[in-house]
Amino acid sequence: MIEINEVTKKFQDKKKSITALKHVSFTIGKGDTVGLLGENGAGKTTLLRTIATLLEPTDGSVKVGGYDTVKNPDQIKRKIGVLFGGETGLYDRLTAKENLEYFASLYGMSKHDTKVRIDELARMFGMRDYLGRKVGGFSKGMRQKVAIARTLIHDPEIILFDEPTTGLDITSSNVFRQLVHQLKRDGKTIIFSSHIMEEVTMLCDKVAMVHKGELVYHGQLEDLYAQENSRDLNFIFMSKLVRGDEYHAS
């Protein structure tokens, strides 16, 4: 479903070149739910943006559903839903409903399908009371709910979430987690980054760990637990960062 092959991404900062990703390679299968772990600046968001066709790799390639992210970005964009932390992509002057209708139109959805889908998502996220209000006056949590609905409006096959529960209260976070379980049952392919280890252990079958732009582990959570002789993902993650001489992707 997603093939990441020797991806390197460099950015030019004034006179200095910064390498955000270094020869990253792994494959994500259809229906996988993968937790992307790494400290701030490790390269998680760069990797997600590369998969989403928003960044081109400096070297290497990414294929999504058989399509190359550089050569065939339009075909890929129809298949994916993307939400990056802190970037809701919403228009403040429009109501929540108008925002969702606008993004649905970009995907060529009919008015009937759009109405049905908005009703479904509004019920799921408890947004019915403020669908008709302008997004500019929303709290961070309310905006995040609408942003998640925007990500899912076209029922994508592949969903990329970057810190999706940022700004959500406990109840809304639990609703999101229930949503991920439903998406898994529907056979969706999901990648999401999170600093909440409990969230990853609850929702993910696999994890990918990135440190300083390099992949240090990719595989089944259960295999990682067995390898490290522990089920404490936070301890395992910190331990892998400390053991700098043993970094390797499984």
Automatic annotation (TrEMBL):
Matches recorded under CDD domains: ABC_NatA_sodium_exporter
Gene3D superfamilies: P-loop containing nucleotide triphosphate hydrolases
Keywords: ATP-binding, Nucleotide-binding, Transport
Parts of the chain that traverse the membrane: none
PROSITE patterns linked: ABC_TRANSPORTER_1 (PS00211), ABC_TRANSPORTER_2 (PS50893)
A Pfam family hit: ABC_tran
Record InterPro entries: AAA+_ATPase, ABC_transporter-like_ATP-bd, ABC_transporter-like_CS, ABC_transporter_ATP-binding, P-loop_NTPase
One function term, GO molecular function aspect: ATP binding
Domain called ABC transporter: residue spans: 2-237
Protein family (similarity comment): Belongs to the ABC transporter superfamily.
Protein name stated in the entry: ABC transporter ATP-binding protein
Origin species: Rossellomorea marisflavi
